[in-house]
Specification:
Elements lengths: L10 H34 L5 H11 L9 H29 L7 H31 L14 H12 L8 H29 L4 H32 L13 H12 L8 H26 L7 H34 L3 H15 L1
Length: 354
């Protein structure tokens, strides 16, 4: 008898549920998409095409380099996505109540998406800064590398070396990028759900996956120019005289337009779209599954596939990391006799560079 009754949720859980679901789905999606995000950042830093970057990373740094900065990525999702998706759902529910339960127009959804994006980016900007720096570190000369151990070490070093306010370096383009991404992603997602489900009569799984794909494309197209500027600002370092390449976001925009034209902002768009679209699809699908389970609704059979896929990915990553550690140990043993010769050249090279 009790099986037919819907679950009764407490007031506290009803309030925090959108935030918990949003953060959990974002962290799951990041574990899947992190390698593509790593390649995207390297392309934006001028390391070559997607194929070249992938080959160089595998040859020079190993498979584990694709997951460099994962701790910062997870921290970013735990702050940024939790606040972003949670506030979007709360604001949407409030707006629907004010609209007497009727579906919201696209313009109102876009406004809510912009607001939620700004809230999320303001909260998650420090973790985003740590992520960009950890991903870009290997592209810098050895003497300029920061060598952060993990996200929390990165945040500690930034505060110690540059001050607390440095945690929000590049926060301007980060907020604008999040607002544009959120508007493109969440507004188009809700609109696509209504189109596929109500107008075209798609099933539950087809509706969610189709709407997620549409949402991922619009999120990519709207946000990449701001993502490009954000990456340039967050990874920049002063030269020998202490001068930074850009004085701010606007200066970066003007110099980029002058040197490469407007299409320069869309550098790496195919990779960015491949990175954003699956991330959006996994994230929004996980949100749908989490909400279905928490509300006592039956989720689709794809949840079993997702769980098995996550287990397989985890096992594969662990096997690759074991292989890389063994290969690195073997390589060190084989090259040990050459170490003194390299050490002799080191100071000479450093002196000539200075």
């Amino acid at each position: 008898m009790a099986e037919g009754k819907p679950k009764i949720q407490s007031g506290v859980w009803r309030t925090i549920k959108p935030f918990v679901n949003g953060g959990a789905s974002g962290m799951l999606a990041t574990c899947v998409i992190q390698p593509i995000d790593m390649v995207k950042v390297r392309i934006q830093l001028g390391q070559g095409s997607a194929v070249q970057v992938t080959k160089n990373m595998l040859a020079n740094e190993g498979f584990g380099s694709f997951y460099k900065g994962l701790s910062a990525g997870l921290l970013r999702q735990a702050t940024y996505t939790t606040a972003r998706l949670g506030s979007f759902r709360v604001l949407t529910n409030k707006a629907v109540e004010a609209n007497d339960g009727k579906p919201l127009p696209l313009l109102q959804k876009a406004a809510i998406g912009l607001t939620a994006g700004a809230i999320g980016a303001s909260v998650g900007s420090p973790a985003d800064l740590a992520l960009i720096r950890m991903q870009a570190d290997a592209t810098l000369p050895a003497a300029q590398r920061r060598n952060y151990k993990n996200a929390f070490h990165a945040l500690y070093r930034i505060i110690a070396d540059e001050g607390v306010l440095a945690l929000w370096k590049g926060a301007g383009p980060t907020v604008v990028r999040a607002m544009s991404l959120n508007m493109g992603m969440l507004a188009s997602y809700d609109q696509s759900i209504e189109l596929f489900r109500d107008s075209l009569g798609f099933g539950e799984v087809s509706t969610v996956l189709g709407a997620s794909a549409v949402s991922g494309f619009f999120a990519s197209a709207c946000s990449l120019p701001f993502d490009y500027v954000k990456t340039q600002i967050q990874k920049m370092q002063p030269d020998a005289t202490g001068k930074y390449p850009y004085t701010g976001s606007l200066d970066c925009v003007m110099k980029t337009l002058k040197s490469g034209g407007p299409f320069k902002f869309y550098t790496g768009f195919p990779v960015y779209c491949v990175r954003i679209a699956p991330h959006v699809m996994v994230k929004l699908y996980d949100v749908d599954i989490l909400e279905s389970n928490s509300e006592g609704r039956t989720g689709s059979g794809l949840i079993e596939i997702r769980i098995i896929g996550n287990v397989i990915c985890t096992k594969g990553i662990n096997l690759w990391r074991d292989y890389e550690r063994k290969a690195a140990a073997t390589n060190r043993a084989e090259t040990a006799p050459q170490t003194p010769a390299k050490m002799v050249n080191g100071p000479d090279a450093a002196a000539s560079n200075s």
